[in-house]
Amino acid sequence: SRTTGIDGCKADDLNRAEICERQQMYQLFQALKAHVPGFANAWMVATSPMVGVRESANIQGAYVLSREDVLEAHEHSDNIARGCYPIDIHDPAGGHTRFAFIRDGGSYGIPYRCLLPDRAANLLVAGRCLSASHEAHGSSRIMATAMASGEAAGTAAALALSGGILPGSPQFDAAALRCQLHRQGAILDRVDVVSPL
Question: Where exactly are the structural domains of the chain?
Answer without folding.
Answer: 1-53, 67-192
